[in-house]
Design brief:
The chain is an all-alpha fold. It has a single domain (about 30-310), classed as Orthogonal Bundle (Ribonucleotide Reductase, subunit A). Helices cover about 65% and strands about 0% of the residues. It has twelve helices and no strands. Helix 7 (about 145-155) packs antiparallel against helix 10.
Length: about 350
C-alpha cells in the first residue's frame, strides 16, 4: 500500500505541482485586467421586467412586431453558441494553468448566461405565447440566422490556431451582435420598449469588453503568415452579417421617408458593419480593411459613441460596481490597450 501511495505521488508530481494552482495575477496581467473590468460591470436579468414592453408590443404595427421577433431569432441562440466556445477556451486555459485567463473566461461565461437569461425573459414576456413558435422556427429555418450560427460553430471545432480562433470570436462579439444593436437602439425613436433598449445598452458594454479581450489575445499571438487568413475571417463575417441585415430591413421600419431621413437604410447599415469590421481588424493589430465612414444620428440620442461601436471605451456604465483601474495590480503599472478611437474610421 505504501509503495502504491508513493507511485501515485510520484506520478502526480510529474504531471503538476500544487503551487501551480496559486493565482498569480502577473502571470497574465492583460487577462487579469479584463477580468476586473468585467467584474466591475456585473449585473442581473432581474433588473428588467419587460411587462410594459409587452404592452408596447401589442400596441405596435405588425412590421415592428415582426422585426422584433426576427431579432430575437438570433439573440435566443447567440449567447449559447458563444458559451459553447468559451467552455473550450476555459479547458485550454486550465491546462496552461493560466488562472487569470480562467477567471476572465469564467466571468465572461457567467455574463453570457445573464445575456441568455435576459433575452429569453424579454422574448417570452414581450411576445405573446401563441407567437413563440415563430421565433423558434427562425432559429432553425431562417437561412441568414443559420449561417450566423454555423459561422460561430466553425470556430468551436476549428483546427485553426488559437490566434485565428480569437479573431473569429472577436468578429462574433463585435460584428454579429453589434450590428443588431444599431437596429434595437433605433426603436428609441418610437418611445417604446424601454426595458429592452436599456438591457441592450448594458449588454452592448459587455460585448465591448468581450470583443476587446478576444482581439487583444489575437494581437498577442497572431503570426505574420496568419494575417491574410485573419482578414479572410473578418471579411466573411461581414458578408454573413450583411445578409442578415438585408433580411431585417427588407421593409421600412417606421416608414420609407422617416427611415431615410434618419439614415436607417440598408446601405448605411452595411457601411456600419464595415466600420465594425475595421475596428476588429485594428484591435487585432492589423490595418483598416474598408475605410468606410457612416453617420448614424440616432446613436447620439442615447449618448453612446458611434466611433467605438457606441460603446463606452472605459466601461463606465451606470452599473459599474467599482473602478477597475484601482483594482488591477495594486501599485503595478497599468496595462494599456489599443484604442480604435485613435484610428480615423
Amino acid at each position: 500500500m505504501k509503495k502504491l501511495f508513493f507511485q501515485l505521488k510520484k506520478k502526480m508530481s510529474q504531471k503538476t505541482r500544487l503551487e501551480d494552482y496559486i493565482l498569480k495575477t502577473d502571470f497574465d496581467p492583460v487577462s487579469w485586467e479584463f477580468y476586473k473590468r468585467q467584474e466591475a460591470c456585473d449585473w442581473s436579468a432581474e433588473e428588467f421586467r419587460f411587462t410594459k414592453d409587452r404592452d408596447d408590443y401589442l400596441d405596435s404595427p405588425k412590421r415592428i412586431q415582426d422585426l422584433l421577433k426576427d431579432i430575437f431569432g438570433f439573440f435566443l441562440i447567440g449567447d449559447g453558441l458563444i458559451s459553447e466556445d468559451l467552455v473550450v477556451l476555459i479547458q485550454e486555459a486550465i491546462k496552461e494553468k493560466n488562472w487569470p485567463k480562467v477567471m476572465y473566461l469564467s466571468m465572461q461565461l457567467k455574463v453570457e448566461n445573464t445575456h441568455a437569461e435576459t433575452y429569453s425573459k424579454a422574448a417570452l414576456t414581450i411576445v405573446p405565447q401563441e407567437e413563440h413558435n415563430q421565433m423558434i422556427d427562425m432559429c432553425e429555418k431562417l437561412e441568414c440566422v443559420q449561417k450566423k450560427g454555423e459561422w460561430i460553430q466553425t470556430f468551436i471545432d476549428s483546427q485553426e490556431s488559437k490566434a485565428l480562433r480569437n479573431v473569429g470570436c472577436a468578429c462574433g462579439e463585435g460584428i454579429f451582435f453589434v450590428g443588431l444593436f444599431s437596429i434595437i437602439f433605433y426603436f428609441k425613436r418610437l418611445n417604446k420598449f424601454k426595458d429592452f433598449i436599456e438591457s441592450n445598452e448594458q449588454i452592448s458594454k459587455d460585448e465591448s469588453i468581450h470583443r476587446d479581450e478576444k482581439a487583444s489575445e489575437a494581437k498577442r499571438s497572431l503570426l505574420p503568415e496568419e494575417r491574410e487568413r485573419a482578414l479572410e475571417i473578418i471579411k466573411s463575417a461581414v458578408e454573413v452579417e450583411k445578409e442578415h441585415t438585408r433580411y431585417l430591413l427588407r421593409e421600412p421600419i417606421i416608414s420609407e421617408q422617416s427611415d431615410k431621413e434618419a439614415a436607417m437604410t440598408i446601405e448605411n447599415l452595411e457601411g456600419y458593419i464595415e466600420m465594425l469590421a475595421d475596428q476588429v481588424s485594428v484591435l487585432c493589430g492589423m490595418d483598416i480593411i474598408f475605410g468606410t465612414k457612416v453617420n448614424l444620428p440616432w446613436m447620439e440620442d442615447i449618448n453612446l459613441s458611434q466611433k467605438t461601436n457606441f460603446y463606452e471605451r472605459n466601461v463606465v456604465g451606470s452599473y459599474r460596481k467599482f473602478n477597475p483601474d484601482t483594482a488591477v495590480g495594486g501599485e503595478q503599472e497599468k496595462v494599456s490597450f489599443d484604442d480604435p478611437d485613435e484610428e480615423d474610421f
